[in-house]
Amino acid sequence: MSLNHVDIRRGFRRSQRCETANCVEVDTDRALSGRVYVRDSDEPGAVLAFAPTDWSAFLRTLRTD
Q: pTM for this one?
């Protein structure tokens, strides 16, 4: 995981289950950077960048717990 400057106009999307303004948004456009970007919808300028393998491991953990 790293903190990077990312163009906030990129293709971030939120879960269809998000019904409030307090959501996590994800940009998985790996073709451009090889990273998965995550941000808080309330603070779109602060972005975390994950390697695709780390992101996949995180999602597997969520699905099994």
A: 0.68
